Write a sequence for this structure.
């Protein structure tokens, strides 16, 4: 099994020849990972619509600081 990084140019995937030389003539499976498209899809999600505003949430930094100060002996 071999995994190498390649660059798509038109309808070809360009790889380092030395990395695949010993696999000449073997069947290959190519997976295209499109990280940019994945991150662009998640940008449009408004996560605030899933959060119920509370007094504790509005003052979370102060609340956590008080909790941390109170757990020290």
């Amino acid at each position: 099994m071999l995994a190498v990084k390649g660059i798509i140019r038109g309808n070809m995937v360009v790889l380092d020849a030395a990395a695949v030389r010993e696999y000449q003539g073997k069947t290959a499976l190519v997976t295209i990972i499109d990280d940019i498209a994945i991150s662009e899809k998640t940008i449009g999600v408004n996560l605030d619509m899933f959060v119920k505003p509370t007094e504790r949430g509005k003052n979370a930094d102060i609340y956590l600081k008080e909790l941390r100060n109170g757990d020290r002996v």
